[in-house]
Specification:
Layout (H helix, E strand, L loop, with lengths): L2 E10 L3 H12 L5 E3 L13 E2 L9 E2 H14 L3 E3 L3 E5 L5 E5 L3 E10 L3 E3 L5 H5 L5 E2 L2 H4 L7 E5 L3 H13 L2 E5 L9 H8 L4 E4 L2 E7 L6 E6 L5 E4 L3 E4 L3 E3 L30 E3 L11 H21 L4
Parallel strand pairs: 1-2, 1-8, 2-5, 8-19, 10-17, 11-12, 11-17, 12-13
Antiparallel strand pairs: 3-4, 6-7, 7-8, 9-18, 14-15, 15-16
Length: 313
């Protein structure tokens, strides 16, 4: 027989969105229980320097910042379980969430804060130098490469947008595109093609990122001419998309074709009353720690109002 625990508010995920939801929920005496997930702290735990989060004038390391978030959530009484969710049942109230196929929780409200994961090329050198010149977020890390030469891989709108952003800061931006054209919208294509310090490398794939302790070059191959060359860059940005960590909710929560959870505009409400979504699991536009934290606050307030209106709080 399963070990069953009942909670008012269960938070799935522990990045800026989940922890902020926990701070608000705990202070509102909603006694939240958080299941931290397979990557406690979320994407920021694989980031080095964070300089764009308000309140840290000197900047802070991503993992340390997430420690601050965790301590604040725990200070107000959030019960954090270092585990993952294996299945959910939203078909009837209270909602059922199973942790690691062992412990079942029932919950009056559920806050989904499972985040997203950047898609990577899958090169060993990319993994080894992640945070040391390799990044999946130009807006987060571009500033560290001012007046330097960098490369960005990808051919969609995000890649084009990030290449334009980098071009304002960097000396030169190589845009590595696998196909012979960009997938980006015409307006974005026009912008990158007409930016003098962006050099387009079509029909090109990345073979290896070079450097011992930090990036000092990228070896690429032109698939048409079969010519290999080394780009002398100090930064390598991957912009081939993100994957929301929402597979477990497929068929239960409304999602777009990419798997991002659809919320009622201006709220964190999903199609299931009492289930709320926040952070990168439902935001494919901004994807910043500060916007994730903002939606985490919204989810806790929405959950509190739901509990009150149903006489559960």
């Amino acid at each position: 027989m399963d070990n069953i625990e009942h909670v008012k508010t269960l938070i799935i995920g522990s990045g800026p969105a989940g922890y902020t939801a926990a701070v608000y929920a705990a202070r509102a005496d909603m006694k939240p229980l958080m299941i931290a997930g397979l990557q406690p702290g979320g994407q920021l735990t694989i980031t080095t320097e964070v300089e764009n989060y308000p309140g840290y004038p000197e900047g802070i390391q991503g993992p340390e910042m997430m420690e601050h978030f965790r301590k604040q959530a725990q200070r107000f009484g959030t019960d954090i379980r270092w585990s993952y969710v294996s299945s959910v049942d939203f078909s009837k109230k209270p909602y059922k969430v199973v942790m690691e196929e062992k412990i079942t929780f029932t919950a009056d409200t559920v806050i989904v804060a499972t985040g997203a994961s950047a898609k990577w090329l899958g090169l060993p050198s990319e993994e080894r130098l992640n945070g040391f010149g390799v990044s999946a977020c130009a807006v987060c890390d571009g500033y560290f490469f001012r007046k330097q030469d960098v490369a960005i891989v990808g051919g969609g709108d995000t890649a084009a947008e990030e290449a334009s952003y980098l071009a304002k800061l960097c000396n030169k931006v190589y845009m590595i595109v696998r196909k012979d054209e960009l997938r980006a919208s015409k307006a974005m294509q026009h912008r990158v093609m007409n930016t003098p310090n962006i050099e387009m490398l079509f029909n090109t794939e990345t073979l290896e990122i070079l450097g011992e302790k930090s990036v000092d070059g990228v070896k690429v191959l032109n698939n048409k001419t079969k010519e290999e060359r080394v780009l002398a860059v100090t930064g390598f940005f991957v912009a081939i998309g993100h994957q929301p960590n929402t597979q477990i909710f497929k068929g239960l929560l409304d999602m777009d074709e990419q798997g991002y959870i659809i919320t009622v505009p201006g709220t964190s409400k999903t199609n299931i009353p009492g289930v709320f979504a926040c952070g990168d699991a439902q935001d494919k536009v901004y994807r910043q720690a500060v916007t994730a934290a903002g939606t985490g606050c919204m989810a806790a307030l929405d959950a509190e109002r739901f509990l009150s209106s149903h006489g559960l709080h």
